[in-house]
Amino acid sequence: MSKPANPVTLPLADYSPKHFLLAVVDRVATVTLNRPERKNPLTFESYRELTDFFRACAMDDEVKTVVVTGAGGNFSSGGDVFEIIGPLIQMDTKGLTAFTRMTGDLVKAMRACPQPIVAAVEGICAGAGAIIAMASDLRLAATGAKVAFLFNKVGLAGCDMGACAILPRIIGQSRASELLYTGRFMTAEEGEKWGFFSRIVTPEQVLPQAQLLGKQIAEGPTFANTMTKRMLAMEWAMSVEEAIEAEAVAQALCMTTEDFNRAFEAFSNKRTPAFQGS
After folding, report:
1. With contact defined as beta carbons under 8 Å apart, do 94 and 145 qualify?
2. pLDDT tens-digit map of 207-230
3. SS3 164
4. Which partner for 218 in 64, 118, 260, 267 could form a disulfide, CB atoms 3.0-4.6 Å apart?
5. Strand, helix or coil for residue 157
6. Is the pTM of this model over 0.85?
7. Whole-angstrom Cα distance, residue 111 to residue 251?
8. What's the confidence (pLDDT) of residue 154?
9. Farthest-apart Cα atoms in the chain, separation
10. Angle at the Cα of 14 (from 6 to 225), degrees rounded to 5?
11. In 3D, which of 24, 78, 14, 73 has the Cα closest to residue 46?
């Protein structure tokens, strides 16, 4: 765990990651986990670089949305058995706690990232891979995709990287409990029925559809979209009364933006508003 991560440089369109692929097109950054020969497992280094990338997103105004996917027909098989799980057996409590906090930092970075994140899930999506999909704001599934929170299969608790906090809010407490206690795979059809996936498309279309959705969001009002993401997260811990007050303040701030004025002028002239993110 001592190797430094690849420093993220701005703008992200010019950044060359070491541990995943990155392409920025139409203000949408596509992150591709790229170890297809092993179903795109994560390593100590890729955890760090992904975390640094999502933190850097807050500093790049040209990136409006992020799409996360995997190469070779699978999303991610989770932590690499040989490069992560093997070394963990040799660590003491201090080292293990440093590791689990590091993995949790990835979810924190994704949730703090101001841009909406869309996961394009194909094939196997397991362990930490399932967590990355869960931590995204929207999820599309390819036919045949399978998602599993496998932690109890390796003798660990289901409470990993925020799973016990976030998953029940997406699919409900009972369904989340079943997946976390059994470690079984959730099919794409179950995931769509339960609300984990927005929709199911063919494997050939899952990434293009996710990128199209990302582009549609990117064309919207940037500040307002960021505020929506913030409120969706913050209101988990609020009463309804607190949430209504927080939304009143958030919406008032959105009303001070130029995009709000642009929308009014466009609608007044029967045109489609062209948001500029200001």
Report:
1. no
2. 999 999 999 999 999 999 999 999
3. helix
4. 64
5. coil
6. yes
7. 20
8. 85
9. 67
10. 95
11. 78
Query: For residue 16, what is the DSSP state?
Result: -
Judge contact between 31 and 133, C-beta under 8 A. no
Q: What share of the chain is helix, strand, coil (3-state, %, to 5)?
A: 55, 15, 35
Tell me which residue of 88, 110, 115, 113 sits closest to 100, measured CA to CA: 88
The CA-atom distances, in angstroms, between 62 and each of 12, 24, 65, 118, 260 are: 9, 9, 9, 17, 19
Beta carbons of 52 and 91 less than 8 angstroms apart: no
Q: What is the CA radius of gyration of the chain?
A: 19
Decide the pairing of beta strands 146-148 and 186-187: antiparallel
SS3 4: coil
**The 3-state secondary structure of 74-104, one letter per residue:** CCECCECHHHHHHHHHCCCHHHHHHHHHHHH
Which residues have CB under 8 Å from 136's CB, separation 6+? Answer: 68, 110, 117, 118, 119
Token pair listed for 237:
């811990």
> For 57-108, how does the pLDDT look when each residue is reduced to its tens digit (9 = 90+)?
999 999 999 999 999 999 999 988 788 888 888 999 999 999 999 999 999 9
- Residue indicated by tokens 């790229």: 34
**Pairing status of strand 65-70 against strand 117-121:** parallel
Sign of CA dihedral 226, 232, 237, 243: positive
How far apart, in Å, do the first and last CA atoms of the chain sit?
A: 41
SS3 state of residue 124: strand
